[in-house]
Amino acid sequence: MTACSGAGSAGTSGAAGTSSGASSTGDAATSGGAGSGVTSGGAGSANTGAQATAGVGSAGTSGGAGSASSGVQGTEGAGEGGTTGDAGGAEGTDAAGATGAAAVDGGTPSDGCGMAPGQALGTYVKYMEMVTGVAATKAPRNYYVWLPTDYNPQHAYPLVFIGPGCGSNGMQGIQIQSASGNNAIVVGLDPSMAVDPEGRQCFDSQSFPDPEVPYFDQTLTAIESNFCVDKSHVFMEGFSSGSWLTNLIGCVDADILRGQGNASGCLQGVPAGTCTKPIAYMEVHNNPDPNNSYACGTQNRDEKIKRNGCTQETMPYTPAGLVVPAGATVSCVQYIGCKPGYPVIFCTTTGINPQHNPADDATTHITTQGMWNFWMSLPPASP
User: 15, 165, 171, 200: which has the highest count of C-beta atoms within 10 A?
Assistant: First the structure.
């Protein structure tokens, strides 16, 4: 995970991100033995001044600072008889720290929780990686990471992958941040001329499973290892070529993605029996669409209806934040009888300009406010 300088959207901070994105955790502070009835705290991170982690907490429930005699380096900080220990002395206050390794809040935390971000906040930063298990010419790939402006490494954030259309880079896809704000980590995936069989700057929608599945899986591992992700709330959406990619990942990695969102795009051919696990699904497709036919959209929908065990019955659905441009129509339905927690939403638009449309904040807001609110309405999935 190597950060590059010169990331787009004020991406001058790209050099800040490194392969680790943060210092290693917890080696400097060792856990003190907890007193009876006291839960030992976790290890403090190495860049927090050798924080005390073990010892005591309020009412003997969580590890706080060690006693004055043990404050230095936070060792042996157990409260006597399982009662709340006194804060370390003047020396212990600085060396042990007052916080220890705070518990992570929010969902199912990834390994990157507790690590300093190592990159600029509130802007995309470009990273380079070499994808393993693919042809050498297809191994070099880029991706872009956007962190909330108030990013907290002790809070596990929902993670949203964005797949842009052909000719765009990872910063230029659907701007989900307009809806998610500071409540999500966003990763822009990068199309590549080196992987597209026709030499376009697109995702490869013809080969299976590589090079795109290894690219996604390796990028996901890097993100979860370096940033604080809620692994029970991982989502993906895309437009055009990025929608093709989203359909592929939503098929192969449905046990990882909690939900997907699509604007235009088709589902490439995959071996029978590949797409088996349900996934929460929302799609918007304009009719007509000169680039990816409307029939592609209905085929995507029908595959999800079958996979999620839905019936053909529907009820009206109104996406959050919906805007209907002048001269356009929007019709959305939700399918009935789907497996609990795995709804299927399908929206048809007409009269949208251009006809091949991402349905973002420039038009209907379906792929921003609509999909974000749809995802946040879902119960968490077990990672």
Answer: 165
Ramachandran angles phi, psi of 264, nearest 5°: 65, -160
Residue with the two structure tokens 């299927």 = 344
Condensed to tens digits (0 to 9), the pLDDT of residues 293-352 reads 999 999 999 999 999 999 999 999 999 999 999 999 999 999 999 999 999 999 999 999
Single out the residue of 50, 33, 37, 35 nearest to residue 101, CA to CA: 50
Instruction: For residue 64, list its beta bridge partners.
Output: none
> Judging by beta carbons within 10 Å of its beta carbon (0-12, 13-18, 19+), is residue 276 exposed, middle or buried?
exposed
Sheet holding 185-189, edge to edge: 2-3, 124-130, 140-146, 185-189, 157-163, 229-239, 259-263, 280-286, 344-350, 329-335, 314-316
Nearest-Å Rg of the Cα atoms of the chain is: 24
Among residues 161, 154, 153, which one has the least CA distance to residue 180?
161
Please report how many Cα atoms fall inside a 13 Å half-sphere around the Cα of residue 307, on the Cβ side.
25
Q: Report how far residue 235's alpha carbon sits from residue 80's, in angstroms, rounded to the nearest whole number.
A: 47
Which sequence spans correspond to the domains of the chain? 26-100, 124-376
- C-alpha span between 216 and 193 (Å, rounded): 17
CA dihedral 372, 376, 379, 380 (to 10 degrees): 80
Which tens digits make up the pLDDT trace of 247-302?
999 999 999 999 999 999 999 989 999 999 999 999 999 999 999 999 999 999 99
Predicted pLDDT of residue 381: 67
Q: How confident is the model at residue 380 (pLDDT cuts 50, 70, 90)?
A: confident
Which run of H or of E encompasses 307? Answer: helix 294-307
Q: What is the pTM of this model?
A: 0.75
The answer to whether domain 124-376 has CATH 3.60.40.10 is: no
Mean pLDDT (the chain, rounded): 81
Q: Distances from the Cα of 346 to the Cαs of 42, 75, 118, 299, 377, in angstroms?
A: 46, 58, 39, 11, 16
Residue 126: closest CA among 185, 190, 199: 190
Q: Which helix (H) or strand (E) holds 60?
A: none
